[in-house]
């Protein structure tokens, strides 16, 4: 009898949890787009293995952006420059290999180091110059976009103009084909290729990263510091936690995760572009907020962020399934962001109300 009551209690707690609400939202989204696509296309063009594969293949880049955004938001900060940092990483890899014949590992290592440097600069602006994170990272994003345009210019051209940098066959042959081999493995390698359950290598990287970050957040002292800084910075100082140090680590981590997103972007296309990742500027933030991570900080986890990521990618695939125009897709993406912000605002108000009642 006691075991039955315990099971009922656990089930009740789960049905009242944020995770259950997210899963319901995901199921509702799948049902809506399946029916909508059936009506519009005269057949099932959404709930298919092809759609599932597409969703999985498009999760990796925004997924790493979401990882960095989630940790920062839990600490009460935000980074609007992560997509630009990722684009810079992809462009740097392409430019360094194409023009300066870097080996693939040196190009990737330098891109990640530069990405981390951008993150540290963000932390300096926020912590030392007291800029609001929103303003500081938005300004940094503009600076990086300017640098993107600069390094995308062909230095051998008589009148250099901004361009997309693609690895040429001559350079690839000169380097023994190694850049293409390793980058294609990162971006295009699939396990069980040709079967109904193809698993891209990069999605395995993403899932492993979510697990590692989840363990760090929930099972380590540093994770507790992140929650404490986001929930109550003053209390964090009183117990010996240095919020500024945590901030530096998290801004650097956000930029590092964006750099990984840039590496994967380049590995999928073997090129760098000044407009890469533009569509993902707010995807990571939206996924994190949908997953229950608040702008106010101090709450949320990696499990919710992953479900939020699934919701955003299923939404993007659903818009493709109903043949929605790019303008409509952009507009509805904004609506999804507004919904995420509304959910965050409502949850903050409920938390404040509970705190007042407790007092």
What number of structural domains do the residues give?
1
Question: What Rg, in angstroms, do the CA atoms define?
Answer: 22 Å
Mean pLDDT: 83
CATH hierarchy: architecture: Orthogonal Bundle
Low-confidence region ranges:
none
- CATH third-tier fold name: ABC transporter involved in vitamin B12 uptake, BtuC
Shape: globular
Q: Could you estimate the helical fraction of the residues in percent?
A: over 70%
End-to-end Cα distance: 37 Å
Instruction: Summarize the main sheet.
Output: 2 strands, antiparallel
CATH class: Mainly Alpha
Count of alpha and pi helical runs: 16
SSE string: HHHHHHHEHHEEHHHHEHHH
How does the helix and strand content classify structurally? mainly alpha
Largest sheet: spatial strand order:
1-4
Question: Strand portion, in percent?
Answer: under 5%
Number of strands: 4
